[in-house]
Structure formats: C-alpha cells, structure tokens
Amino acid sequence: MVSLLFYFAEPIHLQSSQIYIPRGTISKIISYLDKRGIDSFFIDRFTLRFIGYPQSGWIDLHHRKLRRLDFLYLLTKSKAALIKITLIPGETTYTIIDELAKRYHVSQKVLQNEYNSVAPYPEGVLFPETYAIPKNMEPKRVIQLLVHLSLARHKKLSSKFYGTYNQKLWFEKIVTIASIIQKEAANREEMPLIASVIYNRLKKGMPLQMDGTLNYGQYSHIKVSPKRIQEDSSRFNTYKFFGLPPYPVCIVSKEAIAAAVFPAKTSYLYFVRISKGRHKFSKTYKNHLQNIKRVQK
C-alpha cells in the first residue's frame, strides 16, 4: 500500500503543459503516452478505469510537473481552451510568421528561427487549413505543431498520388510548381491550364517569365513592376533565370498540388490576364500579342 502511494505521488515531468490525446481505448492512449516519453504501467490503466475515461483532443494540464495521480485525473477532466489559426493558400511563410509573432506578442525573428530549425524548406511546408491550437500553447510549440501537422498532410498527399514520399522531389518540383500555379491562377478551374503552360515551357527550355514567382517572402503582396523584374537577382526571378525556383514561393492548396501532378494536356505557352482576373491562353507568341492588344483596348 505504501509503495502504491509513493507511485502515485511521484512527479511526472512534461515537455509542455498541453498534450494531445487520440481517440481510442485506455490501453491505446496509455501506449500513445508511453511512446512520447510519459512512462506508464498497467496500474495506470486500472486507475483510469476507476476515475474516468481520458478525454480526446487537446488537454491543458496547466503545469509541466505533476504528481502521477493528478496527471491521470486531469486527463479525464481538463479540456484545453482552443483558438483557431487559419493558413490561406498563396500566402508566404514570411507573412504567416509575421502575423503569428504579432498575435503572440513575440519577436518575428524568434519564430522564424524556430521554423527554420524544424522545417525542411524555407517555404511551401506549411499546409493551408484551419488548425485548432491550445490557447495557452507557447509560440515556439505552435510553430513546431504547424510544421509537424503540415508535413503529415504533404506525406499523405504524396502517397495518395505517387504511392511514396520523396521529400526532395515533392517540394523542389511538385510543390514548387503548385506554388506558381497558386500565385498565377485566377480560380480553381484555371489551375490545370496554368500547370500545362509551366510544363510546356520547361519542356521547350523556355524561361517561365511569370510574375508570381517574384511574390515570394516579404514581397507576397507587392505588385511586380518592370523595375522589380530588372533589379531582382534572386533565383525566383524567372524572367532572368531558366527552370524552376529553388523551392516554393508560397504555401499551396491541395487543388494546386493536384494540378501540378495532373496538368491539362494542351499546347499553350502563353497567357494574359483579361476581364475579372481570368486569363486568355494561346499557343503562339503571335496570338499572345493579339490577346494583349485586345486587353489594352
């Protein structure tokens, strides 16, 4: 009896006061916790059956150090208050981190450094979605969680389309092309057509010459001018450099990714923006110039 009291009184040290509990049986939950460094034993299963069933989702334990019995009790009673963070397709990671820094009243540099330490690429890793995050979660952990959940979505999509996940191929080709589609397409229906232009120009060895690639990072919402095209010497300037940029220019939707994987079968090499933001596509430079003249009238 004395040893049992000591067992329940022993401290449990947690990396964070907020933990995620999956749906499932008590045995499954105990196993989940054990894999994440929270040592659990058969007695914990019996204890939980007695005091109550663990809640699923985010749990706020309020402390990083708890007695084992308090920890088990809070698993059944202490649901975390959640906030929503929405990531929008086409936005840049630079802008997202800047907004999060303002929201959490922390340095943008601190969050950027945290992102750099956990994300495999500077851009395109975060997946656009609305995430339910514990209200009191530390900003650095928010970044870690967003990257973790986003990479899981990328791996799932890659496996769906290709049956495997090659991180380099996925981000440096598919997501990079998808990010250009995301920046250029006026709507979802245009995405496969924009994709076809990208692939057709790459196949012919033509420069992509797309403004959207220059809306990277801090330039996300800045209109691309002739001066900007002339002065920008980065690999994102597809007027100066052939091929794709080194990595994505923004975060991308699953629709843009699908278009990058399954482009429309066309001979289009050019497009120009017309009324209501839509584009007119053409196969030859001559027709492209004619379309430009019609727009300028």
TrEMBL record:
Signal peptide: none annotated. It catalyses: a peptidoglycan chain = a peptidoglycan chain with N-acetyl-1,6-anhydromuramyl-[peptide] at the reducing end + a peptidoglycan chain with N-acetylglucosamine at the non-reducing end. GO terms for cellular component: plasma membrane. Keywords: Cell membrane, Cell wall biogenesis/degradation, Lyase, Membrane, Transmembrane, Transmembrane helix. Belongs to the transglycosylase MltG family. Functions as a peptidoglycan terminase that cleaves nascent peptidoglycan strands endolytically to terminate their elongation. This is Endolytic murein transglycosylase. The gene is mltG.
